[in-house]
Amino acid sequence: MQLKRYEAKSISEAMGKIKTDLGSNAIVLSTKRLTGDKGHLIEVLAARDDNYVISDGQDYKKQDSDTATLLSTIKSDVNELRTLFKDFKRERDVNTEITELKETVGALLDVLGIRKNGKAAAPLSKAYYYLVSTGISKRKANALLEELKNCNPAEDLKDFDHILNILENMISQSIATSYRAVENKRISVFVGPTGEGKTTTLAKLAAHYLFKEKLNVGIITMDTYRIGAAEQLKTYARVMDVPMEVASDNKEFTKIVTKLADRDVILVDTPGRSRNDEEHLSQLRDYLKTNHPLETNLVLSMTSSRENMADAATRFNITSYDNIIFTKLDDSRKFGFMYNIIDRVKKPVWYVTDGQGVPEDIQRVNPGELARLIVNNKVSENLSALSN
Which domains does the chain have, with CATH numbers? Predict the structure, then answer.
């Protein structure tokens, strides 16, 4: 491997020197600003591996198809690195992304053994691609494979299906750390961004409690923003013959909770607003302040992007939510998104929903069932096996 250090006035100047000396296949390892006698310069550390050159149109040394695909993926990551350098207007953010990308590529190379012996174990590389294809982030996929290699002998990692079974068990154990033995509280509140399915999920649970568990149910809506929101819930309540009240502020909410003292379960719908609306989130937090014990559930739609789900999970922390409910699994093809969120916020998943049917299209799930959903990445063959 050729390793060289460059000093330049700008990234573009440094990249020009790197391309001239090391060619277009060079990889940038680090960047930092220099100050002092030399003025404002940029130091760039770059390298080129002569044994494993990554470039468009080049034939790789007689490797199997899995290894070739792996190198193609690494090439994509490296090209992403180069693209970041083309827009250096937000230097701090770009440098952060570069560091993360470099660490991700490096971790992948180490996990699959490319740096040490030039070969990628086909079943492991296949498992990595598969995890990423389900929506699990590259960083988390790398971490899972690294743990897999550290905790299992090499002879047990030669069969792809067996590797997936081990990964399913690992994911189940990881998810289980987010669960805790807590009795469900009488008042359940549903929060989340607009369009995530809060009202429909509440209606499903109301029907479940009413018809399957034979409980007395009460409904409160705090959604006085959305046109027709209260009417939609009122229709559900009328069909199920359960009382429904509208609360516009904290004082009314507390008064209505007292009024529904004879109810076994009270389900509370809240207005769905943009996760970026900090004023609304603060207001929602204040509305829910009461001496009555609450259980707050964050509702996230599986049709959202990974980034939007992660952002919502972080921003709604202001409500101190206890659980997560994932909705619209029937419209998703990336169940790995669930693992990203669970691993990020360390909250248990209470229910998942997979359709508009009330109350049948909702299932309570445990860590093992969630891990099976994530690894199999299929809704139709798994939800029928979930506990009711």
Answer: 51-176 (no CATH), 187-385 (3.40.50.300)
Contacts of 240 (CB under 8 A, 6+ apart): 206, 207, 210, 217
The counts of H helices and E strands in the chain are 14, 11
From CA 195, how far away is CA 272, in angstroms rounded?
7
pTM: 0.68
Instruction: Tell me the HSE value of 156 on the side-chain side, using a 13 A CA sphere.
Output: 11
Among 314, 302, 287, 285, CA closest to 370? 302
Q: What angle in degrees, to the nearest 10, is found between the helix axes of 367-376 and 160-176?
A: 140
Place of tokens 């020009």: 16
Which pLDDT band, with edges at 50, 70 and 90, does 384 fall under? very low
Confidence class for position 355, pLDDT limits 50, 70, 90: confident
Distance CA 171, CA 131 (A): 11
Rounded CA separation 76/82 (Å): 10
Q: Which residue has the higher pLDDT, 39 or 311?
A: 311
Task: Please give the structure tokens belonging to residue 67.
Answer: 């290894």
Contact 348, 323 (CB under 8 A): yes
The runs of H, that is alpha helices, within the chain are: 11-22, 65-86, 91-112, 114-117, 122-133, 138-151, 160-176, 198-207, 229-240, 250-259, 278-287, 306-315, 336-345, 367-376
| Torsion sign (Cα): 214, 215, 216, 218 | negative
User: Of residues 295 and 84, which shows the higher confidence score?
Assistant: 295
In this structure, are residues 281 and 319 in contact, taking their beta carbons and an 8 Å threshold?
yes
